[in-house]
Amino acid sequence: MITAAEYEVFDVQIKSYTDGSYPKTNEQGETGMEVFKRLAAEAPKKAAPKTAPSRKTSWNSQEEWDRDRPTVKWIFPFIDKNNDGKIDTDEYQAIQEYKKTRRDWLNQARKELGLTTPEDQ
């Protein structure tokens, strides 16, 4: 990513090389490279945002869910709150929020579904 300050320095450098009427230095007598070095030293370095792989947030059927999430097939009915046979983005977000607020969310979900042990799945 190029910051606005970096672009400005680049623009000044290009103009100073290609446009004879453009001054080789700024009002403070700095060349484009000197401005760049000064700005680089002053500006805090920002880490580039990490781009995680796109995470799927909806499924059109129990079968699709089972393929993508084979270790938690049993939880599909718990997430599918409107019982339409699909998990939409809102339902998926709701389970993510549910998980954040409950440390024992797996056992709670099993209990609400009437599953007492993992073998019931």
Features:
121 residues; mainly alpha; rod-shaped
Strand content: under 5%
Largest β-sheet summary: none
Rounded mean pLDDT is 80
What structural category do the secondary elements indicate? mainly alpha
Beta-strand segment tally: 0
Number of distinct helices? 6
Task: Report Rg.
Answer: 28 Å
Termini gap: 48 Å
The level of helicity is 40-55%
**SSE string, helix = H, strand = E?**
HHHHHH
Give your account of this protein's structure:
With 121 residues, the protein is mainly α. The chain folds into two domains: 4-42, no CATH class; 62-120, no CATH class. Helix content is 49%, strand content 0%. The chain has six helices and no strands. It has helices at 4-18, 32-42, 62-68, 76-79, 89-101, 105-113. Helix 1 runs antiparallel to helix 2 (32-42). The longest helix has 15 residues, at 4-18. The chain starts with a helix and ends in an 8-residue tail after the last helix.
Brief synopsis:
By secondary structure, the protein is mainly α.
What secondary-structure arrangement, pairings included, does this model have?
Elements: H1 4-18, H2 32-42, H3 62-68, H4 76-79, H5 89-101, H6 105-113
